[in-house]
Amino acid sequence: FDPRHYxxxxxxxxxxxxxxxxxxxxxxxxxxxxxxxxxxxxxxxRKGKPEDVVRDLIAQLGSVTAVVFHEEVxxxx
Length: 77
What we know:
CATH class: Alpha Beta
Shape: globular
Largest sheet: none
Helix content: 40-55%
InterPro entries: Crypto/Photolyase_N_sf (IPR036155), Cryptochrome/DNA_photolyase_1 (IPR002081), DNA_photolyase_N (IPR006050), Rossmann-like_a/b/a_fold (IPR014729)
Number of domains: 1
CATH topology: Rossmann fold
GO molecular function: damaged DNA binding; deoxyribodipyrimidine photo-lyase activity; FAD binding
Strand content: under 5%
Radius of gyration: 15 Å
Pfam family, one: DNA_photolyase
Protein name: CRYD protein
CATH superfamily: HUPs
CATH architecture: 3-Layer(aba) Sandwich
Distance between the termini: 26 Å
GO biological process, one term: photoreactive repair
């Protein structure tokens, strides 16, 4: 979870993630973790800036050969 997603927006300082969206996200992650667990896998969940968290996970695991990521598309005004 990137803490920057829970700060206010640039223009009006409105929350990017409100309470309903946050609850949906948490429930979805919990369900995904439970589904993966039933299949013999797991889900790693961390809080922090992705550029820091991913770097730390790679260092911790040590045998990572590839990293795939998705960048949020931002609207240009």
